[in-house]
Here is the input.
Amino acid sequence: MSIAQILRVPILPFRMVNAHIIKTGDGCIVVDAGIPGSEHKIGKVLARNGMFYSDIKLIIVTHAHTDHAGSAARLRSLSGAPIMAHQGDMDYYTRKKPMTYCTTGLAGRLFFKTPVPHQPFEAFEPDILMSNADVMSLKDFGVDGIVRHTAGHTDGSIAVELSSEDALVGDLIASGILIGGIAFTGRAIRPPFEDDPHRVAEELERLVKSGAKRFYMGHGGPLQAPEVMRHVHALNQLPRHACAHAHCDHNSH
Here is the structure.
C-alpha cells in the first residue's frame, strides 16, 4: 500500500476552516467537505495534484457542523464516492433537527454570530453509517488506517488514524488566534464549539497513546503530540459544568 500524503484544502482564509485530502497512488479520500459550495475549492486542490473528482474513493464527514458537512452531498454527486459518518449526528445530516452549538468562549460566540455556522446544507444520508463500537478500516479505499468514534465535540464525531502516525480529528482540537489563523498556529486551543471538553480530553489522550504524532484539524494546525497533551491537561482542569448543555446555542436555520 502506497504512502499517504495529506493535502490541506483552505475553505476559508488564515486556516480558519480546513478540509483535507488523503492522497495515495490509487486515488484519495476526502476528510470533511467544508461549507456549502466548497466542492469547487476541493476540486481545485485535486486538480493541482493531478486528480479529478472521480479519483475520490470515500468522503469522511467528521461531524455535522455546516463547515464540515456543508458540501458533502454535492461532492458525492460529483464523485460517486460514498459518504462515511456516525449515527450520533444522523438527525443533523438529514436535517431532522437543528444543530446545537456549545460555544467555548469569546471566539466561539463571535463565530456563532457570523453567517458561517448557520448556512443550511443539502441533507444527506451517509452510505456508510458508523455506530459507537465500530472501527472502520480504510484499506478497501487504498489507505492504511482506521476511522473511530471520538465523541466529545459532538455526539457523532469521528477521527481518522493513519499508520503514518497522522490523525485527522475534525474539531476535537484547534489552534491559533481567531479560530485557526493569524498567529500562534502551533498552540492548541479549544474549537469555537464543543459539547464535552472532558470527553474530548480522553479521546485526544487515547490518540496520542495509540501513536498519533501529528494532528490535522478543521481550524488551524497541524499540531504535534506534545502540544496536544498540553491541551489535554488544560481541558482536564476545566470544571465539569463547563460542558453543560444549558449554555448551548441552537441553530434554527
Remarks:
- Residues 4 and 133 are 26 Å apart (CA to CA).
- Helices lie at 39-48, 66-69, 72-79, 90-93, 106-112, 197-209, 225-236.
